[in-house]
């Protein structure tokens, strides 16, 4: 229920064009969608995470909460996004973002405990997100253990029991279709 | 992070030296040191190999506020989105849109996607294969209709008296020309259904069967159309068209197999990190994707477990296992040979006795070969499945072995049927047998043998369809009703049906092979098959969703797609052999069909070539002669060996590159170990060692402390830059 949707000033649009991978149309569309989620129309106001998660593009994504947490710049880190955070999100998930940006943010999204590495707990939560986090859809503990062991065997190069950013990026760099699947378009 | 830095440095080349190493090392610190509550970290870092001042703030993995600050520090002259990037983006967008619109033309796309989500890739590949066959049959029907059926209908002469071409000697062959096809004078009321089911009676002398087509060169309004020639050439082109379609499809499947490295090369970590599609919207699509990912993971984990178990057997146990497998294979072969004898007996019995009986008994006798074939196709694979359980192979190997065994059974049983027919029609090839002496085929029993063969194939197709429908209605639906409403121990043990893909695929391949074999003798069979497969698609889809439970164990679909095409190719080869033999060796019937009075079907082509101009005749003669064929053969041998050499070179490079990737991994591990040892030996203070420690957390490191301290240590890594 926003008020009259005010236009973004032109200089701001071109500034955002330089700072993100989005085109002008994408930025204007993002502004329109973001104002629909807002109560007041001010660029520095934050939209709480629950409202962000009502967007159809994010509503069923199993990683939606992590995505909001990663891109949020709020002090208590409650997942609320400003418009600029929102643009950062769309930029990382856009068509033209580079592999480095995408793999960097993918790593942070998968790092459920925010400690800078993917350990066995993070990997287990990641696999549960991929298969569905209900009792019928989870892998059984035996399979989960085998899977995590295989993952660490393949990607943990320095054998410290966790996957760090460069090991993660090494795995990603050998998958050519990552860039096309790590995409959210409004 | 360290490894990234070292790799980038090493790829910089030896001339960057110490300073370059220092500078690029300092510039690599950014992304993993992003502090959330500390002062903004202004290192313009990424793993790209560029000098820091020209990094665009776009490519920083940081919040917008920091990017704005960075931008203010830079003097940016470069335009952000140049014309070329805009063009390439527009082009990419256009291609995506075009692909989307073209994909709408493919039938049943949504249904197959839904099936794949609920039941996995294996079941989905069955329906994809079925869709391919429906389209193939429909296109074949259009081909046949356009070149044979419609010209025959349009240009048919009112009187169907056969025109005897000049120069053929038919003295003494009046007996052979007798063809009595008119229905009985007083048909009983149920004769209609009997005739409909077995293709006899009123159905025999129609466009459905070979016997109806005239052998004239139909002329109408100045357009002359050589019906026999068209018939023959259409049949040949139909087979070539099917072969091309199968090979194209196999090529697609093989390409997918090779690029994905047959599935096994793409490790678990790559799949877990990259498999999710973030563009999926809606709970349904997400649920489908999650199901697919879960199935694939479970299948692969199970295969790994089996492989580990097999590898851990002792030599004695392995020998025992192989001996057991050899014995079981012998049992399977014995079963199959027994089935073949049964089919041969049933066919010859049916051919001899069916004409003597009428009514329902006659119908049963007519269908006896079909019944025996179908019965053996149920019993023998069932026994083979039980035997396969004792063999303890991995799931995908079990599937492939079962498929090959069942294929062998089905196709060769069809071959036995055809062989029995042949031996009856041509008196087992003995030209001077009493029955076959005059007309060179058994004209007493077979006044129009092509139509009879066509009828056999028609009966097989029909019976196969009826069996499928009857099973669906009388077995699968009641089974589900029983399991759902009656909770006694038996039903709980039996459980709901599981949709087994290999038997269903074999049924499709068998049906298609029958159609190919019979297409020469029953031109409308592809149309009947299109309708049959269309109905089967919808019925199988209905039974899948209503009666079946999702498979607990599924199998890999990429390699099974390849095997489906391969067995289809086997069927094609069998029917081609039949086609070529019928065209070239057996004398066509005198009483019916477009090839009467020709010694073989193929001679029509020779006769029409003789009617062409002298130069064309010389051209064909030269092509057919040895002087042309032998050099052509030699040339194709040369080309083949070149292509084979090329393929082996590519295969070797792929293997070398794979080895190189593995070697890189080992090198990295070695280097990391080296660094850890050296830092320990050189006694670097603990908080510096944290810089190399991959486990450092995001927020507890300040930018200012890092660069100068470790420079002296860097100096003592002489070997690092040489890698």
From TrEMBL, chain A:
GO terms for molecular function: calcium ion binding; magnesium ion binding. Keywords: Calcium, Magnesium, Metal-binding, Repeat. It comes from Denticeps clupeoides. InterPro entries: CIBP, EF-hand-dom_pair, EF_Hand_1_Ca_BS, EF_hand_dom. This is EF-hand domain-containing protein. Residues 98-133, 143-178 form the EF-hand domain. It comes from the Eukaryota.
Automatic annotation (TrEMBL), chain B:
It is found in: Membrane. Residues 448-557 form the TMC domain. It comes from the Eukaryota. Residues 1-18 have a biased composition (Basic and acidic residues). Residues 1-60, 692-723 are annotated as: Disordered. Pfam families: TMC (PF07810). The chain crosses the membrane at residues 128-150, 188-208, 229-250, 322-343, 355-379, 399-422, 457-475, 514-539, 560-581, 622-650. Keywords: Membrane, Transmembrane, Transmembrane helix. Its main location: membrane. GO terms for cellular component: plasma membrane. It is a multi-pass membrane protein. GO terms for molecular function: mechanosensitive monoatomic ion channel activity. Belongs to the TMC family. This is Transmembrane channel-like protein. The lineage of its organism: Eukaryota, Metazoa, Chordata, Craniata, Vertebrata. The gene is tmc4.
């Amino acid at each position: 229920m926003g008020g009259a949707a005010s236009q973004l000033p032109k200089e701001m649009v071109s500034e955002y064009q330089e700072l993100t991978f989005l085109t002008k149309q994408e930025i204007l569309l993002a502004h329109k969608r973001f104002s629909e989620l807002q109560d007041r129309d001010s660029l520095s106001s934050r939209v709480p995470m629950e409202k962000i998660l009502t967007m159809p593009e994010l509503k069923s994504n199993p990683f939606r909460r992590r995505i909001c947490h990663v891109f949020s710049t709020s002090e208590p880190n409650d997942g609320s996004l400003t418009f600029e955070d929102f643009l950062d999100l769309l930029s990382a998930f856009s068509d033209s973002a580079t592999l480095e940006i995408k793999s960097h943010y993918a790593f942070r999204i998968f790092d459920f405990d925010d400690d800078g590495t993917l350990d066995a707990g993070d990997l287990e939560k990641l696999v549960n997100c991929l298969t569905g986090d209900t009792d019928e859809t989870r892998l059984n503990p035996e399979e989960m253990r085998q899977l995590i062991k295989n993952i660490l065997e393949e990607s943990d190069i320095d054998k410290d029991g966790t996957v760090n950013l460069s090991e993660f990026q090494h795995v990603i760099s050998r998958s050519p279709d990552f860039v096309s699947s790590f995409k959210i378009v409004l | 992070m360290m490894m990234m830095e070292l790799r980038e440095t090493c790829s910089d080349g030896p001339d960057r030296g110490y300073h370059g190493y220092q500078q690029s090392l300092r510039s690599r610190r950014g992304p993993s040191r992003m502090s959330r509550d500390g002062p903004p970290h202004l290192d313009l870092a990424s793993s790209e190999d560029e000098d820091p001042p020209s990094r665009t703030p776009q490519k920083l993995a940081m919040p917008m506020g920091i990017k704005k600050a960075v931008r203010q520090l830079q003097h940016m002259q470069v335009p952000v989105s140049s014309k070329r990037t805009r063009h390439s983006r527009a082009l990419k967008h256009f291609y995506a849109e075009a692909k989307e619109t073209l994909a709408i033309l493919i039938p049943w796309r949504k249904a197959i996607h839904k099936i794949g989500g609920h039941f996995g890739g294996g079941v989905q590949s069955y329906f994809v294969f079925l869709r391919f066959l429906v389209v193939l049959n429909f296109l074949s029907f259009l081909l046949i209709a356009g070149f044979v059926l419609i010209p025959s209908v349009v240009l048919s002469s009112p009187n169907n008296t056969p025109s005897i071409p000049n120069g053929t000697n038919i003295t003494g062959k009046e007996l052979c020309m007798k063809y009595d096809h008119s229905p009985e004078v007083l048909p009983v009321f149920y004769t209609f259904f009997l005739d409909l089911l077995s293709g006899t009676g009123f159905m025999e002398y129609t466009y459905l069967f070979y016997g109806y087509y005239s052998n004239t060169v139909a002329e109408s309004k100045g357009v002359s159309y050589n019906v026999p020639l068209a018939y023959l050439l259409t049949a040949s082109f139909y087979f070539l068209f099917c072969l091309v379609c199968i090979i194209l499809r196999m090529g697609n499947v093989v390409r997918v197999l090779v690029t994905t490295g047959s599935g096994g090369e793409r490790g678990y970590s790559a799949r877990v990190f990259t498999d999710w599609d973030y563009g999926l919207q809606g709970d349904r699509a997400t649920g489908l994707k999650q199901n697919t990912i879960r199935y694939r993971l479970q299948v692969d984990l199970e295969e790994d477990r089996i492989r580990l178990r097999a590898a851990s057997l002792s030599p004695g146990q392995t020998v025992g296992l192989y001996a057991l497998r050899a014995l079981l294979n012998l049992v399977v072969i014995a079963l199959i040979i027994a089935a073949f004898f049964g089919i041969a007996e049933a066919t010859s019995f049916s051919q001899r006795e069916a004409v003597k009986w009428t009514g329902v008994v006659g119908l049963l006798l007519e269908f006896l070969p079909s019944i025996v074939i179908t019965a053996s196709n149920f019993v023998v694979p069932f026994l083979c499945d039980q035997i396969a359980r004792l063999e303890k192979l991995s799931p995908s190997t079990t599937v492939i072995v079962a498929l090959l065994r069942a294929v062998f059974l089905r196709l060769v049983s069809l071959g036995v049927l055809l062989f029995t027919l042949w031996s009856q029609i041509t008196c087992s090839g003995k030209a001077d047998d009493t029955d076959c002496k005059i007309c060179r085929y058994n004209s007493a029993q077979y006044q129009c043998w092509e139509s009879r063969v066509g009828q056999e194939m028609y009966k097989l197709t029909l019976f196969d369809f009826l069996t499928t429908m009857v099973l669906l209605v009388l077995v699968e639906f009641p089974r589900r009703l029983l399991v759902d409403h009656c909770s006694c121990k038996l039903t709980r043990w039996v459980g709901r049906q599981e949709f087994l893909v290999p038997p269903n695929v074999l049924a499709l391949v068998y049906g298609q092979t029958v159609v190919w074999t019979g297409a020469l003798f029953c031109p409308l069979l592809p149309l009947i098959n299109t309708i049959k497969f269309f109905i089967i698609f919808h019925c199988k889809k209905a039974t899948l969703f209503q009666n079946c439970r999702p498979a607990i164990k599924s199998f890999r679909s990429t390699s099974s797609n390849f095997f489906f095409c391969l067995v289809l190719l086997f069927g094609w080869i069998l029917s081609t052999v039949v086609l070529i033999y019928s065209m070239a060796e057996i004398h066509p019937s005198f009483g019916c069909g477009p090839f009467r009075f020709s010694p073989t079907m193929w001679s029509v082509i020779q006769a029409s070539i003789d009617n062409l101009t002298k130069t064309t005749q010389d051209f064909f003669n030269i092509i057919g002669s040895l002087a042309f064929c032998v050099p052509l053969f030699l040339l194709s041998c040369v080309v083949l060996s070149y292509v084979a050499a090329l393929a082996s070179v590519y295969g070797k490079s792929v293997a070398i590159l794979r080895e190189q990737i593995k070697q890189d991994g080992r090198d990295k591990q070695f280097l990391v170990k080296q660094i850890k040892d050296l830092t320990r030996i050189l006694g670097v203070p603990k908080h510096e060692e944290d810089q190399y420690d991959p486990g450092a957390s995001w927020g507890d490191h300040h930018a200012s402390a890092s660069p100068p301290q470790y420079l002296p240590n860097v100096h003592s890594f002489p070997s690092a830059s040489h890698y």
